């Protein structure tokens, strides 16, 4: 099975845990069978490879997610990086070209495309496997999987099949309706369009070359910025006459709001949290190292990270976006290729961060023009490279980095450090990257 | 007017803002006439000196509060330090002896005793001034001020006066009643006992010498630990036959729970807080530098400090104590004689704190056996004294302090620093203090 997972939009709908650099699919709020916390990305990869141990999984995503995916999955999944955001049709074409030109997948093979973020069980990926069988029967160019609705939801588009059989030709597609219309669609046998579909690789490449002028994967990658933004639904699905849909009736949950995430969370609370016995239907996630005490609350979500603290009525959590955008602080936690950083203190002219590096990782070699930095190693050992000289470092060692000095940290063991940044202007943009020149 | 303010119990009823070292009377949640935030201690001092610019204010308190009082009031108020906690009678005797033996107050003068923490307006201290006039008429040994009840409260003891006149002999005292009994007391003209009373200094000294064997203030201070714990009500008030009470009908609020504090707070929110428009009757205090967003909540208090985060229904806030005791973390914010510290990061083997010092202040000269420390100055200038040598320091300077090395910081301007502590054991008890030996 070839699966392209679309890992999109960072977004802030699960703020303060999700932010511009950390997408909801990386939050470890679920648990595997052994009781270990896992993220949506972990979970999806685990479920797919449980259903098909030979599945080839390619995650189509933006550059900003690569560190998180590598930190969570290592090299287990292929990553097809979009140079910039160009909506779903270019993203799917790029990933298809990647499968063909980089991974050597044959044009005859079936490729399935799924979003990375619904909360499902393994039967969903068994459904995706069934799509493959249908595709290889060549009864349609495009085979979709639609979700049997549980409520007349206004949040999803609807697929109206021609018949009520498990597999049917598609009669038509409907935009997100109001509640009344949703009821009507369901009465007609309508199902939710959850963005899951499969096709022979050849089909998609032909579509792509018809609509986009490109030679191969590398060519497309290089001119990606010039490609028109267009959704896959609009470019392909709604125009394709040879299209069928398979009904999927298993568990399926969109965890895009705190209200929905609360239903899917493995534990009612995570982190240092106390609920008094009068709390009802309260979920709390605490990523901070200070305790949270909740008393006498009902139907609420509390979530705390170094980016902020959310206290919300569950129903109301879906309305969060404009408020979070108004708060618009810079992300105070980020995953990088070398580890993670957490802002622990800010004041005008200085910023203090906690750095965590995994053994074997190193930063890129870089310098800053507007600030100097002081590293204090608090645990682990490694090396600091400063203007070409390498120096062994361990707990208690201090490294002072004047403005303009090239520097990088190498972690020989897992390593933690406090970095104090001081300068008239402190910005993530003040960074020049170099090749290493270690003497 | 001589006023003794009893500034007692640290306690955690306003956790996470109040903790073992920071009492509720130091929280800056009120505002003066110019709109500047002020604490209860500020407010009370301001109100007393508005009513009587010549008032002599002595704060009777424990050692742990001295830094906070000095930081907030400077040298404006006298401080009578209890060497240890010995309940209200010994505390009042010690303060009375302090007035007589240290401040030279005559035995003929009137002394009023008030708790530091009720939320009142100036008319309350005009009432205290009226007590003084009554005392100097010598119609009773002890003159109390009782509060006209607004509700049949179970939280206070009741004074039953003989008549319903403004000033009356006391008929009897009643313990905290149930609601039904409270109604009965109020129907009989009963008023709340709020611990406000006045007497001639001579009267209290005589009582003191009758009950405690001591010579003068210094003698009492030195043997304070051996004095029996006993409340002033039990030792004096309930046994005194010559006792009168004055009714006070002005505003009076006990801000000992978040529910009550929310009513008295100057602003509905303080700090970086966003309430959506569907919130009703929600108060938020945010001392952290990350934003708090509250959505769709009703009748709640949210309070956040580096010690923790509280989310509570207002009614339920009074039941907080056992939960907070169970959380029982060490205080992560403290006021010291030299400034304040805030814990910004903890992990096994290391603790990182942000230090803020006011210009002119300095630490005591000290060393640690079990940890080393690294200071990084982030703003301001001063001097670091290390094993007898003094060194000028400013932004970006780093000072490394091995185990056993004597050290202290002097702030020449307001100064901020990040201190990283590293060691197998990190404890506030690991501290040896020295006299300075600056070369």
List keywords for this structure.
homodimer, five-stranded mixed barrel, 10 helices, 30 strands, alpha+beta, 439 residues, six-stranded antiparallel beta sheet
Strands, helices and their partners?
The structure is a homodimer of 439-residue chains.
Chain A: E1 2-6, E2 30-31, E3 37-38, H1 40-51, E4 56-62, H2 66-73, E5 78-82, H3 88-102, E6 110-115, E7 118-120, H4 122-136, E8 142-147, E9 158-161, E10 167-174, H5 179-187, E11 191-200, H6 201-211, H7 217-222, H8 232-235, E12 243-248, E13 252-254, H9 258-264, E14 269-270, E15 273-275, E16 280-286, E17 292-295, E18 298-305, E19 308-313, H10 321-327, E20 333-336, E21 339-347, E22 350-357, E23 365-367, E24 371-379, E25 382-386, E26 389-393, E27 398-401, E28 407-411, E29 415-423, E30 432-434
Parallel strand pairs in A: 1-4, 1-6, 4-5, 8-12, 14-16, 15-17, 16-18
Antiparallel strand pairs in A: 2-3, 6-11, 7-13, 8-11, 9-10, 9-11, 10-12, 18-19, 20-21, 21-22, 22-29, 23-30, 24-27, 24-29, 25-26, 25-28
Helix pairs in contact in A: 1-4, 3-6
Question: What is shown here, in short?
Answer:
The structure is a homodimer. By secondary structure, chain A is an alpha+beta fold.
Could you walk me through the main structural features you see in this protein, from its secondary elements to its overall organization?
- Two copies of one chain form a homodimer.
- Chain A is α+β, with helices and mostly antiparallel strands and 439 residues long.
- Chain A is built from ten helices and 30 strands.
- The first copy, chain A, has helices at 40-51, 66-73, 88-102, 122-136, 179-187, 201-211, 217-222, 232-235, 258-264, 321-327, and strands at 2-6, 30-31, 37-38, 56-62, 78-82, 110-115, 118-120, 142-147, 158-161, 167-174, 191-200, 243-248, 252-254, 269-270, 273-275, 280-286, 292-295, 298-305, 308-313, 333-336, 339-347, 350-357, 365-367, 371-379, 382-386, 389-393, 398-401, 407-411, 415-423, 432-434.
- In chain A, the strands form eight sheets. Chain A has a six-stranded antiparallel β-sheet.
- In chain A, strand 25 and strand 26 (389-393) form a beta hairpin.
- In chain A, helix 1 packs across helix 4 (122-136) and helix 3 packs across helix 6 (201-211).
- The radius of gyration of chain A is 24 Å and the shape is globular.
- The two termini of chain A are 48 Å apart.
- The interface between A and B is large, with 59 and 59 residues.
């Amino acid at each position: 099975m070839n699966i392209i997972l679309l890992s999109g939009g960072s977004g802030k709908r699960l703020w303060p845990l999700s932010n511009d650099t950390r997408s909801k699919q990386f939050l470890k709020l679920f648990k595997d069978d052994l009781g270990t916390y896992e993220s949506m990305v972990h979970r999806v990869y685990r479920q797919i490879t449980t259903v098909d141990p030979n599945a080839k999984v390619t995650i189509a995503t933006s550059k900003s997610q690569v560190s998180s995916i590598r930190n969570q999955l290592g090299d287990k999944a292929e990553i097809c990086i979009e140079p910039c955001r160009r909506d779903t049709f270019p993203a799917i074409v790029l990933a298809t070209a990647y499968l063909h030109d980089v991974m050597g997948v044959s044009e005859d093979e079936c490729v399935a495309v799924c979003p990375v973020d619904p909360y499902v069980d393994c039967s969903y990926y068994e459904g995706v496997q069934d799509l493959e069988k249908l595709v290889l029967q060549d009864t349609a160019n495009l085979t979709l999987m639609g979700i049997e609705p549980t409520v007349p939801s206004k949040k999803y588009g609807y697929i109206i099949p021609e018949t009520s059989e498990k597999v049917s030709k598609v009669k038509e597609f409907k935009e997100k309706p109001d509640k009344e219309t949703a009821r009507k669609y369901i009465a007609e046998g309508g199902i939710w369009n959850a963005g899951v579909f499969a096709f022979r690789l050849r089909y998609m490449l032909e579509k792509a070359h018809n609509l986009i002028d490109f030679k191969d994967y590398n060519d497309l990658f290089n001119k990606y910025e010039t490609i028109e933004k267009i959704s896959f639904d609009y470019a392909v699905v709604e125009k394709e006459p040879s299209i069928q849909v398979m009904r999927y009736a298993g568990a399926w949950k969109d965890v895009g709001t705190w209200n929905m995430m609360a239903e899917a969370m493995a534990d009612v609370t995570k982190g240092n949290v106390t609920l008094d016995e009068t709390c009802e239907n309260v979920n709390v996630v605490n990523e901070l190292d200070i305790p949270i005490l909740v008393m006498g609350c009902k139907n609420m979500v509390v979530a705390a990270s170094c980016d902020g603290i959310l206290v919300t009525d569950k129903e109301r959590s879906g309305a969060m976006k404009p408020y979070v955008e108004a708060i618009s602080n810079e992300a105070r936690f980020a995953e990088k290729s070398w580890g993670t950083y957490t802002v622990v203190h800010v004041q005008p002219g200085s910023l203090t961060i906690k750095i965590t590096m995994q053994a074997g990782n190193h930063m890129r070699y870089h310098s800053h023009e507007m600030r100097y930095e002081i590293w204090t190693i608090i645990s682990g050992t490694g090396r600091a490279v400063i203007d070409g000289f390498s120096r062994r470092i361990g707990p208690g060692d201090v490294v002072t980095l004047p403005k303009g000095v090239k520097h990088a940290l190498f972690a020989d063991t897992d390593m933690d450090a406090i970095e104090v940044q001081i300068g008239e202007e402190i910005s993530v943009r003040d960074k020049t990257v170099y090749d290493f020149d270690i003497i």
